[in-house]
Specification:
about 190 residues; alpha/beta; Rossmann fold; five-stranded parallel beta sheet; 9 helices; 5 strands; globular; SGNH_hydro_sf; phosphatidylcholine lysophospholipase activity; SGNH hydrolase-type esterase domain-containing protein; SGNH_hydro
């Protein structure tokens, strides 16, 4: 296992310039503009091959835009997390909430995020809720963080990084403990 940090997800991760923002770390960005959870599932072998010290997952907003159900999105993100946990037992994982976007999508995004918050601990992943810092009072993406209620401005990325950096630093300081294995006496 390397001590690299892989950022996995869609265009929000791809456009974040994580290598620059976290220059003190060995960062690999595997975010692809336009990707849905289906495409991320198709790219998991690339993550497993890297065998990183940490994976930071951010995906789901494009699924929302394609009007996929909250159940579909959650099931796919659970598949991503379960596959990574099975193949990368010692890798720390952070799953980030689907960020707010246009107001009409707020109910499905809130539902997805509620499920992710509950599911993350079952695969020893940490959950980072970006909703409180990015959402406007009405549940859309705050105008100060975006010009189109979807893509983040520089100010939006600065706010995101401010939330992510402490959790990532704490995660990297502590090794993920392997689950206890019960051994039957011979």
């Amino acid at each position: 296992m390397s001590e690299s940090v892989v950022f996995l997800g869609d265009g929000l991760s791809a456009d974040a310039r994580w290598e620059e923002r976290l220059s003190e770390l060995e960062v690999r960005t595997l975010g692809v503009c336009g990707d849905t959870t289906d495409e991320v599932i198709g790219r998991l072998d690339a993550v497993i091959e890297i065998d990183p010290g940490a994976v930071v997952l951010q995906v789901g907003t494009n699924d929302v835009g394609w009007n996929r159900s909250d159940e579909y999105i959650v099931r796919n993100i659970e598949t991503i997390l379960c596959t990574l946990r099975k193949e990368l037992r010692g890798t720390r994982m952070i799953v980030q909430s689907v960020p707010p976007r246009e107001l009409e999508y707020a109910p499905v995004i809130r539902s997805v995020n509620r499920h992710l918050r509950q599911f993350a601990p079952t695969v020893k992943a940490r959950y980072l809720d970006l909703w409180p810092v990015l959402a406007a009072p009405d549940g859309s993406l705050g105008a100060e963080w975006s010009t189109d209620r979807l893509h983040l401005t520089e100010a939006g990325y600065v706010v995101w990084l401010g939330e992510l950096r402490p959790m990532l630093a704490e995660s990297l300081e502590h090794p993920l403990l392997a689950p206890a294995v019960s051994r039957n006496p011979a």
